[in-house]
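pasting for the record
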Amino acid sequence: MRRCGKSFIARQVSKLFIDAGYGKEDILIINLEDEKLIERNYALLLDAYAVYKREIRPKRKPLIIIDEAQEVDGWERFVRGISERNDASFIITGSSSALLSSEYSTLLSGRHITTNIMPLSFLEFARFNGLEIGAVADISKNSDELRRLLNQYLRYGGMPAVVLSKNKEELLLSYFDTILIKDVANRYRIRNQDRLRFLAKFYLTNVSSQITFNSISNSTKEGKTKGMPVKTVQRFSEYLASSYLFFFVKRFSFSVKEQENSPRKVYSIDNGFVGVIGFNFTEIRGRLLENLVACELLRKTNMGRNTELHYWKSAASEREVDFILKEGKKISAIQVAYDVSAINAKEREVGGLTECAKELGIKNGLVVTHDYKSIETVNGIMIEYMPIYEWVLKQEFQKQTTVGK
């Protein structure tokens, strides 16, 4: 998504090229959001490349970085043409999932590798704040500092510049407005921006909730005044998802039809938007915790080719499990509970897990908590309670091991 660090990472890669022997003249960066570029079109890319070759004269096959490519229709033809002649290598960044549409994938088939960049993980967030966690053993040693950092991460999220800024709320509000205007309203030519803004704020104040487009449409009705049409809700929701501001989690079912017809749960790609635009932090900290877990699981699905994320709901008892992570044939059931000491909270969370585990044929379940740690067996199912900071960091180290292999 916008401002999560794509351009910075692209420049880090270019530095690796320079460290490996490339000259600075062998790298061309075209920032398509540069305010000096009035006409952003296919001809601009051709002209920029021609001037670069003529005036700069790279000494070897250049690396070309096209930043925010969605600003130019036809960028993929430019990339394909030069790639087919083997004249250059490319890094393309964009703030819209439209870059991954079937049309583009067909044009660049076999010629590209896609990497999804998300806001900072908690491990990266800790490092931005001067705390180096290099191994699992470091977690318990730094538990007090990790708890303190976790509360900041829960509330303000992991957008890199926000983490480093003293004006976190103002910056997040600015990002929110920019995403709505540039990546959604302008891109999709939306005239009624009030409806778009209403829907975005509705989702931010209802993260972790089950929603249907029909229910949202009905909730906007006032007396005899018609609400937002269902098709508009669906269309705007798809646009908001394409900007990576939100993502939706479907109900787990072995029936594709049932998955599609069931309510979906909505989450924000970064806790900061929820914490600033949502309600009082204390009132929504349980939702913020669940949103953080959802984002961490989304990282897993981005990395795994055969990985799916769902929620589970019993057809018989209406009990729920917040997340089902399916990695190939392996299925994990995960509940999120900020405070399991509340009356009936533990029984409620465990009840859903044990019923789900027996239905899906798994032998254990996980409850991610704010600060509670324990292991117990309930009705033959092993239930592990793990503090959120410990769980997310272990997920990080597990991913690093997987990538290393």
